[in-house]
């Protein structure tokens, strides 16, 4: 009897393979790109236009949300990490979680035609923040196009350094959250929301003053977000209008 070999993905007609790659979601493309040089080239030819990407930067676990699919890069001992993708067995990688996350981001962000409708970035601890702002200028050499940008940083972390790889001339809406020291005993939780209107950005800036011991207490006892928001009195919130010429904002 004649022995038949098992069907192979690479044996499919080129046109059919191209259609499969085109319909594959973002995490699927990350996997396909690592299969062969041919599939890598095919994935890289696709126009990388996406609706939503969120990055939460943390030393223990970096979360990458690619259009609703959450990928976890969890740090382990000796600069190893595990990569967890829904529906797949966690994969151990002998590299730091930040390096692995950037490798995945680079598979599509390095494409000059990359575009994302909404990009959200949160940096938490100072160690991962410093590593993030050191790595992205080395890897993302060209600015990426983002329509709507949302950023959150802690005290002493700079919004501009977190978002240096973004082409701000193309941003239509920007929402930024940050902490700063109001006094020895108080912190200001600040928020600025600006929307492009012709050649200017218009919007509002607001902040609420909270005691410095509120944040550690909330972290230690797991105070619920709803309870925390209810504890803020309207009189504590100060708002002012923002009207920034495009050239100054960018």
From TrEMBL:
UniProt domain F-box: residue ranges: 6-53
Transmembrane segments annotated in the record for this chain: none
Name the record gives this protein: F-box domain-containing protein
């Amino acid at each position: 009897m004649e022995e038949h070999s098992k069907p192979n993905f690479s044996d499919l007609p080129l046109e059919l393979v191209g259609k499969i790659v085109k319909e594959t979601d973002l995490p699927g493309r990350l996997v396909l790109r690592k299969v062969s040089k041919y599939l890598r080239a095919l994935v890289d030819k696709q126009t990388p236009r996406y609706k939503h990407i969120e990055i939460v930067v943390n030393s223990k676990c970096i979360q990458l949300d690619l259009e609703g699919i959450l990928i976890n890069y969890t740090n382990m001992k000796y600069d190893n990490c595990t990569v967890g993708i829904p529906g797949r067995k966690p994969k151990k990688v002998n590299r730091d979680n930040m390096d692995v996350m950037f490798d995945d981001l680079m598979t599509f962000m390095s494409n000059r035609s990359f575009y994302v409708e909404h990009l959200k970035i949160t940096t938490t601890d100072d160690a991962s923040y410093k590593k993030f702002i050191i790595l992205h200028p080395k890897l993302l050499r060209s600015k990426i196009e983002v329509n709507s940008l949302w950023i959150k940083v802690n005290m002493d972390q700079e919004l501009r350094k977190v978002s240096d790889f973004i082409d701000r001339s193309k941003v239509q809406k920007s929402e930024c959250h940050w902490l700063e020291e109001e006094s020895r005993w108080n912190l200001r939780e600040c928020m600025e929301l600006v929307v492009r209107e012709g050649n200017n950005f218009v919007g509002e800036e607001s902040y609420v003053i909270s005691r410095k011991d509120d944040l550690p207490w909330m972290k230690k006892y797991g105070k619920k977000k709803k309870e925390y928001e209810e504890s803020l009195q309207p009189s504590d919130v100060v708002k002012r209008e923002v009207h920034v010429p495009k050239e100054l904002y960018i």
